[in-house]
Write a structure and sequence with these properties.
Elements lengths: L1 E2 L2 E2 L6 E5 L16 E3 L26 E3 L17 E3 L5 E4 L2 H5 L1 H11 L5 E10 L4 E9 L15 E5 L7 E3 L11 H11 L5 E10 L3 H13 L6 E5 L2 E2 L2 E5 L6 H11 L2 E11 L17 H17 L3 E3 L2 H9 L15
Parallel strand pairs: 7-15, 9-17, 12-16
Antiparallel strand pairs: 1-2, 3-10, 4-5, 6-7, 8-9, 8-13, 8-14, 10-16, 11-16, 12-15
Length: 343
């Protein structure tokens, strides 16, 4: 499912799952601030996970991780690993590196590493007027810090493999319910590398679950309506950095591969997901526990800042600076004095 060409929240669909370790390195693009040791993450699966893949139950070597003050504690180098390119919409990284299509152990190690970082979910609110061609505001709010806790021991993320009987791409050009495997990620990697098809790919999907976007959409539309804005408003929930694709290397060149793909199709292995829950169960269910805070708390914390950005006709990200401006430089309408929109 997608909105404006970007993937949005997908339900997880697997049977096999396992907890993931927090540090790995498959190539880097930058190095900056202080280094810390990530040695306090338990390797036990969450209580809702299923059978583990054999190698997943073994702790991975601890490696140093860079700390960026004010940002979630993650290995950001894994978003731009060597040999990968990022798509123009920032949703997908792709590699044609031959060893990932040849050696199962290299592919498994790569997937294990890239599954330890989340996608980037955000909210986008756009207002258009004058026949819906003029953009009056286009504000975005990054919510990645609401699926990643500072305390790595409390993180809810896990990895899931496609389950028996689930429909998905299992090495064919269309979705099927077979074959099923018992050897976990390692067996899927062996099947992919042994596949003689000239055009094939193996994909990892990063998803966010149990995030009530319908509730947020309604509340945010009401917030914009309270500004007396008269144009058309859309609220969407794009998720970027949500897909990793390993493609077979070109036999001749990229053009030849693209032409071949038209006639033969692509044999797809899309059997693994990195799941990042906003909460352990859906909103409204009893005993719900959120990774960081619930949707109501988010709105209480950020509604004034979002409204301020909209009244300022912002085209960009909402940040802590909007909080400061709201507190220090409020607009007339934010002081309780009625005013035309944008004043």
């Amino acid at each position: 499912m997608s909105v404006n060409g970007q993937p949005v929240l997908a339900k997880d669909y697997a049977e096999h799952s396992y907890a993931v370790n927090r540090s790995a390195d498959v190539g880097s693009s930058s190095q900056q601030p202080q280094e810390i040791e990530d040695n306090d993450r338990p390797n036990t699966p969450p209580p809702y996970s299923g059978p583990t893949s054999p190698s997943m139950s073994q702790p991975q070597p601890v490696q140093s991780q860079l700390q960026y003050p004010g940002l979630p504690r993650l290995e950001y180098r894994l978003y731009t690993p060597a040999t990968f390119t990022l798509s123009s919409d920032a949703t997908t990284i792709t590699s044609y590196e031959p060893r990932y299509s040849t050696y199962p152990t290299a592919l498994v190690s790569l997937i294990q590493s890239l599954a330890t970082v989340p996608p980037k979910p955000h909210i986008r609110i756009v207002g258009k007027s004058a026949g819906y061609e003029v953009i009056d505001f286009d504000v975005k709010i990054n919510l990645m810090n609401l699926i990643v806790t500072d305390d790595v021991k409390r993180r809810m993320n896990y990895v899931k493999l496609i389950g028996t009987g689930d429909v998905g791409f299992r090495g064919e050009t269309s979705q099927t319910t077979a074959p099923s495997v018992t050897g976990g990620l390692e067996e899927w990697a062996r099947l992919f590398c042994a596949d003689s098809a000239s055009i094939k790919h193996f994909a990892l999907e990063r998803t966010v679950t149990n995030w009530d976007t319908s509730y947020l959409e309604g509340r945010l539309l009401s917030l914009v309506n309270n500004t007396l804005y008269g144009g058309r408003v859309t609220v969407t929930f794009p998720v970027t950095h949500s897909r990793v694709v390993i493609r077979s290397p070109d036999k001749v060149n990229r053009f030849f591969s693209n032409v071949t793909k038209v006639f033969t199709g692509t044999r797809k292995y899309e059997v693994v997901k990195s799941v990042w829950p906003y909460a352990d169960v859906a909103r409204g269910e009893q005993g719900r526990r959120c990774a960081v805070q619930d949707e109501e708390s988010f709105l209480r914390n950020w509604s004034d800042s979002i409204k301020h950005a909209i009244l300022s006709k912002r085209k960009g990200w909402v940040s802590v600076e909007d909080r400061l401006e709201f507190l220090m430089e409020p607009k007339e309408s934010e002081k309780g004095n009625p005013a035309p929109w944008g004043n």
